[in-house]
Amino acid sequence: MSADTLLIIEDSFVQAKIIRKQFEILTNFSILIASSLREAQALITAHKEELFAAVVDLNLPDAPNGEAVDLCSAHGLVCIVLTASFDEALRQQFLEKRVADYFLKGSIDDIEPLTVSVQRLHANRRVKALVVDDSGTQRHIVQKMLAAQCITAMEAADGMEALEVLARNPDIRLVITDFEMPRMDGITLVHEIRGKYKINDMAVIGLSSAGSGTLTAKFLKYGANDFLTKPFEAEEFYWRVNQTLNVFDVMQEVRKYREHAAKL
Predict the structure, then answer these.
(1) Is it the case that residue 101 has pLDDT exceeding 70?
(2) Cα separation, 263 vs 258, whole angstroms
(3) Is the model's pLDDT at 32 over the cut of 90?
(4) Residues in contact with 151: Cβ distance below 8 Å, sequence separation at least 6, in sequence order
(5) Cβ atoms within 10 A of the Cβ of 216, count?
(6) Which part of the chain has CATH 3.40.50.2300?
(7) How far apart are CA 89 and CA 95, in angstroms?
(8) Contact 208, 230 (CB under 8 A)
(9) Using 50, 70 and 90 to split pLDDT, how confident is the model at 100?
(10) Residue 145 half-sphere exposure, CB side, CA atoms within 13 Å?
(11) CATH superfamily ID and name for 5-123
């Protein structure tokens, strides 16, 4: 059974009802609701194979310190947090717990971005990426960040190895590459990729350290979809990756439409 069920953990009956209604209108997810940590535990136990993610109220009567996030993470569920307040300490807590996204509680108009985020995370389960960097530590960091967004990632230590990995894994759809690497740098890699894969076949995001000058323009001119300067905040990385994938999906749909229309 595919995991297409969303768990909403929210002690406010009104808030839970609003969230559920919006998800039912805007998505195809099945919805389960828990109003406490105890109810959430029971639902996870009963529906573990069906559940994909949980939208979690950070403060519950029987879990005032984010224990529901720990519960969901322990069961392998993607966690999207709802919170009534926000500060840097909370942000760091979310990052440490590998929370996929977080939103401030608000009006019904604020729920659409939440639904969009969950839909993107669900789609990301089908995305395979390649992280290219000569630093094993940096590759590990980026790979972990991609995992927080439900993206499976492979690794390569330079551009030449990356091309070998791509040749063996034609299902890779996203490449994230650093610039400075031995044997083949990132810009040369992007040029080689675009010689083999069109922009609607593979997305590429370039990375480089601050003070790299015209590298942004070079990466983009050689065919990268986007560029990030290191060091970057996790939220910026998540947003850039997901926006790149959103555009990539649109291009895929347009191509399918054109191919279908050509056959008529």
Answers:
(1) yes
(2) 9
(3) yes
(4) 124, 127, 128, 129, 174, 241
(5) 16
(6) 5-123, 126-259
(7) 10
(8) yes
(9) very high
(10) 20
(11) Response regulator (3.40.50.2300)
Strand order in the sheet with 5-9: 30-34, 5-9, 51-57, 78-83, 101-104
Tokens of 211: 């003070």
Query: How far is 153 from 81, CA to CA, in rounded Å?
Result: 24
Cross-strand bridge partners of residue 152:
128
Determine the length of the chain. Answer: 264
The angle, 0 to 180 degrees and rounded to 10, between the axes of the packed helices 67-74 and 37-47 is 10
Say if CB 90 and CB 43 are below 8 A apart: no
CA distance 68 to 103: 16
Q: With a cut of 60, say whether residue 1 has pLDDT above it.
A: no
- Do residues 203 and 173 make contact, with C-beta atoms less than 8 angstroms apart? yes
Structure tokens at 77: 């569920």
Q: Which residue has the tokens 């791509």?
A: 166
- Report DSSP letters for 187-212, one per residue: HHHHHHHHHHS-TTT-EEEEEEETT-
DSSP code at position 60 = B
Q: Which fold has domain 126-259?
A: Rossmann fold (3.40.50)
* Distance from C-alpha of 210 to C-alpha of 236, rounded to nearest angstrom: 15
Please answer whether residues 54 and 37 qualify as being in contact, where contact means their C-beta atoms are separated by less than 8 angstroms: no
CA–CA distance, 192 with 228 (Å, rounded to integer): 20
